[in-house]
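Example 3.2
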Amino acid sequence: MTTSTVVPAAHEPAHDTAHEPSVNVATAVKHPRILSIAGSDPSGGAGIQADIKSISAHGGYAMAAITALTAQNTQGVQGVHIPPASFLTSQLDAVAADIALDAVKIGMLGNAAVMNAVGDWLARTRPAVVVLDPVMVATSGDPLVTAGTREAFLELLTFTHLVTPNLPELAVLLNRAEASSWHEAVEQGRALAAEHHVMVLVKGGHLPGTQCPDALVWPDGSVREFDGARIETANTHGTGCSLSAAVATLQAQTGDWVESVRRAKEWLGGALASAGELEVGSGAGPINHLFALWGSAAPAGETFSRELWADCAPQRTAIFELDFIKELAAGTLGRNHFAYYLAQDAQYLATYSRVLARASALAPTETEQKFWAGGAQNCIDVELSLHRDWLSKYPLDSPQGPVTKHYVDHLQAVAFGGSYGEVVAAVLPCYWLYAEVGRVLHADYLAFEGEHPYGSWLATYADEDFAKATEKAISITDAAARRGSASERQRMREAFAHSAQYEVDFFAAPHLHVEAVKAASVTSSD
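Structure, written as tokens:
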């Protein structure tokens, strides 16, 4: 993941507006209206398609005026068609006549006529924020402008606040050899900024090494550097387009160039790191512009519960490897082990019923309120009476054990300090894992030859009502996950995971307790 630590240079700029053309400084806008003036990439990774996704990812309203049509994919550019510059002017005038523009991002301008048309429009409209990405060469190395356009492009810098060239483009603009070191790159940025009185974002992505620094350079030579680790990925199609569009959007929101670049760089790191998830094309694939949105999207259907079930696979495996479960199924479990389990289960259920009652109080629908209230009543009226019957056969005066205490403390902490979603996620393992254990143990009981010493207990695991209740609890958890935020879903996962591990520990506790009692007895006799 890219880090984006801001490192002050030797000279800090006195203010962020000294370099700007004489236009109004943008005021912060929550959902800025951003116009992208750029080419079209039918593969969706660069150009206006990338800009629209980048602007949207940062909360802006994206618009686009198309300067060129390309035939390209992740492997390269096969063709470029540039519509008449007069039609581009018509697009720009139509948008500006009706919609207030908070920022303009400029990308691919295929020839001098197009550049002049954009320059004339900028001179007439003077947008508050103009970010110019000099798209001259595609990521694949294919040229995107006609020869002899350098002078026309430089004229555009008169109306630009920030220009964001990569190192090859920076060299073309200065008519120099491409920088071979970061120091040389920053010096070239200083030269361009001073010569054209424009702020320059120098990007170090083309340099070798594990680091990928950027630098914001003011016309007075001041520099602000941004450190970042290089993201190892082949999916870099459209990085320049996307970064510049993000900076334009953030600048319209914050009015602070340093903060805008810092946040855009941090976002780009996440978009690059997750780009492989898209699996688009066989060449240089696109970045994942919407990784944050998709990461926070509500899971559909039963997706969330399936993820929980998959996540607790280690706990499910661990339960069936426990001596308590194996010996209970085989009918060889010691009476003391079973008695301790019953005593702890009875104490657990007394608290568990209160937690279910709390879930009922928090439930958003009458149906869910009744479900949890019924579960709480069931713990009291049925389960506790069943345990009393069994405890009369397996008497054991056992105080609350450490595992039981930790488990119920966890449940109560969630119940009285967490959201409804967290509560239902915390109680779900007691339904789901218990039902799974019951399903396996009941099958073993049916296959058992002879009279099983715990047969009547194992027979209770086949209760159809409990199976239906488990399905309902799973459904409620999925619904809560869909309603919740990404952060709440994460807390639900954590609550479920803790309870799942406590289920393992609860089944393991009888053997640990009996062994501890034996050890203590031996010690006292000695």
